[in-house]
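Dear colleague,

Thank you for sharing your sequence with our group. We've completed the structure prediction you requested, and as agreed, I am returning the results in plain text so they can be pasted directly into your records. Please verify that the sequence below matches your submission; if there's any discrepancy, let me know and we will rerun it promptly.
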Amino acid sequence: MTQPIESARKKNCCPATRRIASNRDLNSSRLVGADRTSRLRTISRKLRPNRALLVLCSLLLAAQASASPSPPGAHRPNVNVSGQAHAASILAAKQKKGIKKERRRRRGRRAPRGAGSRMPFQTGETLSYELTWMGIPVGTAEFKVTKDTRWKGKAAWHFEMKARTNKYADAIYKVRDHMHAWVKPRMNRSIHHEKKQREGSYHRDVILRFDTRRNRAVYRNQWRAYPAKPIFSDTYDPLGLLYGFRCKNIARKGSIKMSVTDGLKTIRANVKVLGKETLTIAGQPIATWHVVPELKDVGGIFERSPGARMDVWLSADEYRIPVRLKSKVVVGSFVATLINAKGLKG
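Please find the predicted structure tokens below.
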């Protein structure tokens, strides 16, 4: 009822009054338009940080529309679908290229981040050995510094060992061992260890997790998990111990204290350096350091007799490459002799 009355009043009033009323209506409409414009500017400012998201959504919708054509007779919007689909494909290709580049960069690392430049090895180092038992060839072994330089997103060294017997020795004592070790970049302690051990009737799958904050180690095999046991702040697993000792400077006879654990027992091993010896490998004399780690009853790289001695010969240079390993087993003793080396540092 109000609008007709107002229009009637405007018609019955004098011309000056009608002019004032029309100006008032014009000003009010301008105010409403200005308010609407300011609101639109505010909304656009709020949406500005998400402009990339809106562009990405529009590209995905365009790609979906181009992938599923509409039925005949249906209305299609006037949009350059082919151009947007092409832009989406270019964006996906760039992202894929960036992922591949990052993977190549990681594989190309010679050491994990923070390792320093004085390490005697680098990623890609592969040492191959021939296993003999009482002078008879029985298998091969391989020690490798893998190109994977991370453990659960953190920088780390990754070492791997494989050992297997040949088809002739399989009939007597079959061996299929596979071991992994992750060590901190500074080579001052282990952070994880895994082992799949198949030696004769002895089968064991082991996971050894190191809690570096609380200095504890948790041992778990295929049957159960054992309670956490305390360790030293510089404790290695059996495989990490070999590479950790390679980082030690050997200048003369003596002994070096190093901590090692197999998850069930932790000791301060006394690694004795007996002196320099010259070995003949493939007809060539090689100067080596003769080292004897006293591991007692801690499980080592290979299954051996309880309390058996293990001898290691390291090259007498800055790289300290294991040239020969010797250890007693249940029957006789085995010897691992270096036959090939690839990816050496320097």
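Summary note from our side: The radius of gyration is 37 Å.

Kind regards,
the structure core
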